[in-house]
Amino acid sequence: MDELEDHRIANWREVLIEKERPFVSIGPDASLFDAVKALIHNRVHRLPVIDENTGNAIYILTHKRILRFLHLYVSQRLY
């Protein structure tokens, strides 16, 4: 705890800037394959779907949501 009192936010921001990564997103017209590829390639857990006209987030894709969709899609095809 004593060390924590010595740290300043300015120093903390400098450390974070060194580790900063670019913002990763996809558009609503991207394929599911492109979304999975972006998640894996960029090593992110959440991928915002951004409306190109407004810049607003429409949806947040995650590995879990994609797997749930695939499970439901395959289940419907089998029955």
From TrEMBL:
GO terms for cellular component: cytoplasm; nucleotide-activated protein kinase complex; nucleus. This is 5'-AMP-activated protein kinase subunit gamma. GO terms for molecular function: AMP binding; kinase activity; protein kinase binding; protein kinase regulator activity. Belongs to the 5'-AMP-activated protein kinase gamma subunit family. InterPro entries: AMPK_gamma/SDS23_families (IPR050511), CBS_dom (IPR000644), CBS_dom_sf (IPR046342). Gene3D superfamilies: CBS-domain. It comes from the Eukaryota. Pfam families: CBS. It comes from Elysia marginata. The keyword Nuclease does not apply. SMART domains: CBS. Residues 17-78 form the CBS domain. AMPK is a heterotrimer of an alpha catalytic subunit (PRKAA1 or PRKAA2), a beta (PRKAB1 or PRKAB2) and a gamma non-catalytic subunits (PRKAG1, PRKAG2 or PRKAG3). Interacts with FNIP1 and FNIP2. SUPFAM superfamilies: CBS-domain pair. Keywords: CBS domain, Kinase, Repeat, Transferase.
